[in-house]
Design goal:
It is built from 7 helices and 8 strands. The chain is an alpha+beta fold. Strand 1 and strand 2 form a beta hairpin.
Amino acid sequence: MKIRAYLALMVLAIFIPIFIVAALALAKIQREERDASLRGLKETARAVSLIVDREVQGSLSALQVLGNSEHLETGNLKAFYAQAAALDRPDVWTVLLDASGTQLLNTRVPFGTAAPPPVALARVTQVIATQKPLISDLVVGLVTGTLLTSIYVPARSAGGKKFVVAQAFGVGLWKRVSLQKALPPSWIVGLIDLGGRFIARSHKTEELLGKLARHELVSAAAAAHDGLIRHPTV
């Protein structure tokens, strides 16, 4: 065998193990980066869900206070309006409904504004019958004409008259909530309602607002409180 051939074999003998070790190291780094990215995704999803839950729990507490208001007992709706309006925030306002689903007041508009047609009767009836809070899917508000979600809580006066107190959340609130955490530009954060429609989304927000998310995402969200799936986005 010629010296050149020996040299070539020596080079291969030296570099092949180096290449193998480098490839294994690169694969390990890629796995670690992937695992770190997945952990980041789970932590981000958990953080956003906790922020959403904080908003919901805060609203439930406020509505329970309003449901026990002395102004409902005395029938002083103007004073109740002032009390409810004091709890409003940007993109969050309060509605009082009677058992027929009629809006008695809405803090998004001045007190005494004519009520819109009662379209929430089914939700109001359910809340009064079960005496449990209800969170709506994404709907169009009759007063604002904009997309919103609502939380309904049962209430009654000392005379036994039944009411439902609700807080409406404009989608602007959920957009701010979902984007509180700084994210890599390529990441997408979205909130969907039980029906699978986007309430908020960090990319193509206006284009996809109210549109259905991917079926596999909706099914996964309905099947478990948390988890990971792999799927193409819309």
